[in-house]
Design goal:
The protein is 37% helix and 24% strand. The protein has 18 helices and 25 strands. The protein binds 5-amino-5-deoxy-1-O-phosphono-D-mannitol (M6R). The site of 5-amino-5-deoxy-1-O-phosphono-D-mannitol has 17 residues, from helix 9 and helix 15.
Length: 605
C-alpha cells in the first residue's frame, strides 16, 4: 500500500506532474500525502495528514519549485497517520528526502543503532531509518548510488523507494525489493512510479524494475544496477501497453459506479481474450490431481466460485483457500498439486508470500491477474490476464466479474480437454457469448431498485447475505461490498448455516439478503427464507425472472435474467449487490472509492 512517484526533467518544473500522478496513485493509500523537490542546492518539502486535495488546498504541494522531485501517498503501517509520519522522510540535516512503500522488518534494530550514533529520528515510521542509513553512508564518502546500495543491503523486508539529494539536483535513486516499481520515459522527463496507470499520459516507454535492482534516473540517462553486486545491468525497455480501459472517471460521480457500468465491456474483453492462454492454463490444471485456488478478499470469493466450476464441469478436485491462511492449513502438497492464485493487483503480499513458499517446494503455480507485469506474473509458471482495464475504486467490482467469467472459460476448456460434461460446457460458452448483454440489462434494470433499497439499508446497522452452493461466493461478496464501502456491518453465510447461530441476531426488520436462483438449492433456500421471515426479518431476494414464489415471500426483490446454466448465476446475481453497496455508501455520505482504513493493493503481510 502507499504509492510513490518521482520525476526529473531538464526543462519542466515537476511538482505539478508529481501532484497529478499522486492523485492517480491515491487509491493505494490516502491517509497522508507529501512532496519534495530539489532546487538551488536545497530540498523543498511539504507534507501532511489528509486526502491529497485537502493537503493541496492548505499547502499547495504542486507549487514547489524545482525540476526533480518525489511524492508519496500513504496507507499507515508503522506510525499513525500524522504530519510527522507522512512521507517524504529526511535525514538529520534535510539533505536528502525519501519515499518508501513496503515494510522494513528490522527497523527497530537499525533505529537503535542509528540513535546510538547520534541520528535524530522525527517520525515513528520504519521508513525513516533508510534516509538516515543513506546519510551515514554518504558521510563515509561513498558516491550516492553506492550509499543507497549499501543501505539497502542492510534492510530486511519489502520496499520500493525513491530518494532525491540536495547535492545532486537532477538525480533520483530508486530501488525495488518486493514492492512494485516502474520507470516511465517521455520526451520531457523520466519518472518512477508504483504502478503503470499512474504514469502521465506522455509516458511512451516503460521499464519494469525487478526485485534487487537499483536505478539511477537523470533527465537523459537511466542506469540500472544489481543491488547485490553493484554491476550495471541491461535496460529492458518496453512500449507502454495499450490499456483496455482508462483511468479517467468520465461522467460518473465515482470510480466504483463507473466500474460497475463497465462490466458489459469487461465481459466482452474476457470472451475475446486470446484462447491460447486459456488453453495453456487449462492444460496444466487437468494434469493436476488436486488444485488449490488461493486469494484474498474478493479474489478469494472468486476462488470459491472457481473451485465449484472446476469440480463440477471438469471434475478437477479443486479447493478454495484464503492466501493468508495457507501456511497454517497443512494442505497436501506434492508433485501432482497445482496452485492457481487469483489477485486483481498481482501485488497482494499474502498471496505472493504463499507463492514463494510453494515455489521453494517445487509446486507449480499459476496466476490470474488484472495487472500484467505485476509481481504475481513473475512468480507463476503461466498466467492469464483479466482484461478488465485499470480498476481505481478500492472495492473490486468489474474485476470480480472478470474473474468469474475467465474462470468459467478455463473450466470449459478443461472440460473439453478431459471430455467431461461437454454439453454443459457448450451451454456455458453460449452463456458467455450472451453475458455482455445479460450483464447490461441486469445492471440497468436494477439501478433504480438498488437506489430505493439503499435508503432503508443506509439506516441499518447489520445485514445478512445468505445463499447455498456456488452462490455462497455471491453472498460473501455482497456482504463484503456493503461493509467495506458503507460501513453497515454485513455477514455473508451459507444459508444452511444461518440456523446454527447467526439467526440469534435476527429481530424485527433485520435485513436478510438471499441469493435465490432456481437451481438445486432453490427449495432449501426457500426454507431458510421462511425461518428468517418467521422471526420478523426484512427479506431481500435476488431472483430469476418469472420466479413468483420467492417474490411473494420477499419484502423486496432484485430480478435478474433467467440463466440456463445455473452454475454461472453468480455473474448476474452479484450485480445488484454491488449497486446496493454503492448507493448505500452514498446515502450514508461516504466516499465509496476510498473507504476508511483500506487501500487498493495490500502489499503488507
Ligand atoms: O488485488 P487482490 O485481488 O489480490 O486484492 C485482494 C483483496 O485485498 C481485495 O479483493 C479487497 O478485499 C477489496 N477491497 C475487495 O473489494
Amino acid at each position: 500500500m502507499c504509492g510513490i512517484f518521482g520525476c526529473t526533467s531538464s526543462r519542466l518544473s515537476v511538482s505539478t506532474v508529481i501532484y497529478e500522478s499522486l492523485k492517480r496513485l491515491e487509491y493505494r493509500g490516502y491517509d497522508s500525502v507529501g512532496l519534495a523537490t530539489t532546487h538551488n542546492g536545497s530540498i523543498y518539502l511539504k507534507k501532511d495528514q489528509g486526502r491529497i486535495r485537502e493537503v493541496e488546498e492548505n499547502l499547495h504541494l504542486s507549487f514547489l519549485p524545482g525540476r526533480c522531485g518525489i511524492g508519496h501517498t500513504r496507507w499507515a503501517t508503522h506510525g499513525a497517520p500524522s504530519k510527522e509520519n507522512a512521507h517524504p522522510v529526511t535525514d538529520c540535516n534535510g539533505m536528502l528526502a525519501l519515499v518508501h512503500n513496503g515494510v522494513i522488518e528490522n527497523y527497530l534494530e537499525l533505529k537503535d543503532q542509528l540513535q546510538k550514533l547520534g541520528h535524530r529520528m522525527r517520525s515513528r515510521t520504519d521508513s525513516e531509518v533508510i534516509a538516515h542509513l543513506i546519510e551515514m553512508h554518504v558521510k563515509q564518502g561513498l558516491p550516492l548510488d553506492e550509499a543507497v546500495r549499501r543501505t539497502l543491503l542492510l534492510l530486511k523486508g519489502s520496499y520500493a523507494i525513491a530518494a532525491i539529494f540536495a547535492s545532486d539536483e537532477d538525480t533520483i535513486i530508486c530501488a525495488r525489493m518486493e514492492s512494485p516499481l516502474v520507470i516511465g520515459l517521455s520526451p520531457n522527463f523520466v519518472c518512477c512510479s508504483s504502478d503503470i496507470p499512474a504514469l502521465p499520459k506522455e509516458v511512451e516507454k516503460i521499464i519494469v524494475v525487478e526485485n534487487g535492482e537499483i536505478v539511477v534516473i537523470r533527465p537523459h540517462t537511466i542506469i540500472i544496477k544489481s543491488l547485490e553486486t553493484g554491476q550495471e545491468l541491461p535496460l529492458k525497455v518496453t512500449l507502454r501497453e495499450e490499456m483496455t480501459g482508462d483511468a479517467d472517471i468520465g461522467g460518473f460521480t465515482h470510480y466504483m459506479l463507473k466500474e460497475i457500468h463497465e462490466q458489459p465491456q469487461v465481459a466482452l474483453n474476457v470472451i475475446k481474450a486470446p484462447a491460447k492462454f486459456v488453453t495453456q492454463l487449462a492444460e496444466k490444471l487437468v494434469k493436476a490431481e488436486r488444485v488449490y485456488l488461493i486469494g484474498c478478499g474478493t479474489s478469494y470469493h472468486a476462488c470459491i466460485f472457481g473451485s465449484h466450476v472446476l469440480r463440477f464441469l471438469a471434475k478437477i478436485d479443486s479447493f478454495p483457500l484464503i492466501a493468508s491462511e495457507f501456511d497454517y492449513c497443512n494442505a497436501s502438497l506434492d508433485a501432482k498439486t497445482v496452485v492457481l492464485a487469483l489477485s486483481q493487483s498481482g501485488e497482494t503480499m499474502d498471496v505472493l508470500s504463499a507463492l514463494k513458499r510453494l515455489q521453494d517446494l517445487g509446486i507449480e503455480v499459476l496466476a490470474l491477474t488484472n495487472v500484467m507485469g505485476s509481481s504475481i506474473t513473475r512468480l507463476a509458471s503461466a498466467y492469464l490476464g483479466l482484461y478488465a482495464g485499470p480498476e481505481i475504486g478500492v472495492a473490486a467490482t468489474k474485476t470480480f466479474t472478470a474473474q468469474l467469467l475467465m474462470l468459467a472459460r478455463v473450466a470449459v476448456e478443461a472440460s473439453n480437454i478431459k471430455g467431461e460434461n461437454v454439453d454443459y460446457a457448450k451451454r456455458i460458452e453460449e452463456f458467455l457469448r450472451q453475458s455482455p448483454s445479460a450483464i447490461k440489462s441486469s445492471i440497468s434494470s436494477n439501478v433504480r431498485r438498488a437506489q430505493e433499497l439503499s435508503v432503508k439499508m443506509s439506516l441499518k446497522d447489520h445485514a445478512f447475505f445468505l445463499a447455498r452452493g456456488v452462490n455462497v461466493a455471491t453472498a460473501l461478496e455482497g456482504a463484503l461490498k456493503l461493509k467495506e464501502v458503507s460501513y453497515v456491518h454485513a455477514e455473508g453465510y451459507p444459508a444452511g448455516e444461518s440456523k446454527h447461530g447467526p439467526i440469534a441476531l435476527v429481530e424485527e426488520d433485520y435485513p436478510c439478503v438471499f441469493i435465490c436462483p432456481q437451481d438445486e438449492t432453490y427449495d432449501k433456500v426457500i426454507g431458510n427464507i421462511m425461518e428468517m421471515k418467521a422471526r420478523g426479518a426484512f427479506i431481500v431476494s435476488c431472483i430469476e425472472e418469472g420466479d413468483k414464489e420467492v417474490k411473494e415471500i420477499s419484502d423486496f426483490s432484485f430480478v435478474l435474467p433467467s440463466v440456463e446454466v445455473k452454475m454461472l448465476t453468480p455473474v448476474l446475481h452479484v450485480l445488484p449487490l454491488q449497486l446496493l453497496a454503492y448507493y448505500t455508501a452514498v446515502a450514508r455520505g461516504f466516499d465509496p472509492d476510498k473507504p476508511r482504513n483500506l487501500a487498493k493493493s495490500v502489499t503488507v503481510p
